[in-house]
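We include the entry.

. . .
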Amino acid sequence: MSKLERKWWFVSIVSVLTMTSTIGVLYAAGLPPFRYSAAQWVVWFFCYVGLHRCFSFLGWMTVLIVSPKTITLERT
């Protein structure tokens, strides 16, 4: 995990995007909201982790494009 991924503003943006996307995907898949069995919790977990890594990567790439010094200076 990079220093960028530990900043509060980055974590909050990624977490909000991940949570709303996970709920949307599971709703579109037909899972009932907030009435999950153990198997549905596992599906929710895998969906959440995958989307979290996706949004974290996209955020990291966005920061790299907008402000390359932020990323390159933290690696020294």
In short: The chain has one domain: 14-74. The two ends are 15 Å apart (CA to CA).
